[in-house]
Design a protein that fits this description.
The chain has 14 helices and 31 strands. By secondary structure, the chain is an alpha+beta fold. Helix 7 packs parallel to helix 8.
Amino acid sequence: MVTRWSLHEVVLTSARDYAHPLDEVTVQVTFTAPSGRQTVIEGFWDGGRTWRARFSPDEAGEWVWQAASSDGGNDGLEGDGGFVCATTDAATSPWLVHGPLNVSESGTHLEHADGTPFFWLGDTAWNGVLRSTEEDWDRYLDARDALGFNVIQFVSTQWRGGERCLGGPLPFELREGHLTVDDAYFRRMDERVRSIAEHGMVAAPIILWALTPTDPGQALPEETAIRLGRYIVARWGAFPVVWLVGGDGHYYGEAVERWHRIGRGILGEDPDARTRLATLHPCGLSWIGEDHRREPWYDFIGYQSGHSSADGDLRWLTDGPPATQWRGDPPLPVINLEPNYDEHPSYQGNVIFGAHEVRRAAYWSLLVSPPAGVTYGANPIWVWPTEVEGAENHDGLGQIAPWHTALEFPGAASMGVLRQFMEAIPWWDLRPAPEALRVQPGSDRAEAFVAAARSIEGSLVVVYTPMGAAIELAADVVPRNATARWFDPATGRWADADGEGGRNAPPGGAEMLLVLTAGDR
């Protein structure tokens, strides 16, 4: 018996060996649902003569499958079978309870298959799956689960920050034009991805890191990049996953068409044939929404506000593309996939970001665009050292503390508070409302920018003041018979607000959120 939306695996044993299995043969398994609908899944080589095909059934009832290969004479890669899929009331994972993720009808946020809104709260563990032991990985996931994180971003293979530090064979190599993979490495990665699912979280792997000429997204020819991407998708595509097709890349200008081809080659051109969402993780301060929003494989706009403390770069987030270009056709959710990282020095070297800067970037991101979620990052977690050491090819970061020291950073705890706050209100109904403010304190000081959002029908107003500046609201945006409360984003505590005439000063001049809710009419 297979639970709906869980993983079912078909194992095939080849009748012969292949010198270059990724190049010489392809395997496809067609799964037929009780309704008669068919889904074709690509199989993957798993070492020796073993091929596997992983599938996540979405209908209760009896399924049948049939396997075929491009090597018609290999009976071991042919076959058929079946299984029974059933729903269950015993599941605790949101994925198994509510189903895979889709884009909402409004195009502003993500939701499960049954319509339950999904607030993306990601954590950044670029090297986590690459360097962790099984015990450490479970400890990390336990800690993140306890805080309310529900997405884990990581890099799938070697990249500029994780190559020498891997300490073993490379995940893949290109030898004399042939793509080879270390099947033992990928089996270990399977278990890391499986653990994410078992903790009720969503895996968000970067398939091809793409910042430097030696990173896979730049170094590999297109056809090889696509082949590697399809291999990774075949291995992990039946798990709860959202694909980050490229990492830290420049996906604009002359590179646009290359990434369109790579995305289509890996994920296909029929969005209805996919059951997992995808986007790109771009380099800092680059907005790629208009270049990619019409691609059939591109489901939401990811961006990186990055690690600068300069006024102009702060304003890129508060007054730039995330605030002004989120509207478009088709409408897509917008998520900041890399804001200020905890314990990360600013590019200017004058600030080490901490909990306040982490919160500031997060709440700005959620209120200047329709909120869909945000990702957190901490240097010790993404680097994943086991002792004090530098980050590979990131000399400007200095010496990094062991990964486990960041498990209880105040900034990480603040993200748990953030999710609790957002899920206490109908966050999916909020829209940016800069017109709600009579005065913008950020006009003179970028770091004092006040972000405001309002529900579509106007019964809820949320305003974030990072420096404790007084909030002066336009009279026509204050809900009728409004109840006003302050929320402390550092502690999660609420307090009554007693502002008069639309002016509210935060208690003690502290960083706060003001929440106004319409009363009974």
